[in-house]
Amino acid sequence: MNENLPPCPECSGAYTYEMGALLVCPECGHEWSLSVGAADGSGTAGEKVIKDSVGNVLADGDTVTVVKTLKVKGSPTGIKAGTKVRNIRLVDGVDGHDIDCKVDGFGPMQLKSSVVKKA
């Protein structure tokens, strides 16, 4: 089954498998998209391109705007749509949270790129 799948870009493990739209390495636990760097030719296999909710490519230090109201655990009010978040940092987070930032009034947290728009 794994003849057509590339090896893991992190550990070069040969036992990669598909899980939905992602490829997964059971040896090191790394997950990546097969189309990253291959579909548009803009990057290498190890380079991850993170896009916002409308398809703009995000980079470290960008300013983004939250596009929908978000619930925050432990807070009676959430982050309202339209809140600007400055100086983001792109990370390989848990459960799709790929933006590390500080939100005014809430402190440091991680956001998903699917709920922000580049400002």
From TrEMBL:
Q: Which residue ranges run through the membrane? A: none
Q: Which family does it belong to?
A: Belongs to the YjdM family.
**InterPro entries recorded:** YjdM (IPR004624), YjdM_C (IPR013988), YjdM_N (IPR013987)
Domain Protein YjdM C-terminal stretches: 50-119
- Locate the Protein YjdM N-terminal domain: which residues? 5-33
Record-linked NCBIfam families: phnA
Q: Which SUPFAM superfamilies match?
A: Prokaryotic SH3-related domain, Zinc beta-ribbon
Q: Name one Pfam family in it.
A: YjdM
The protein here is known as Zinc ribbon domain-containing protein YjdM
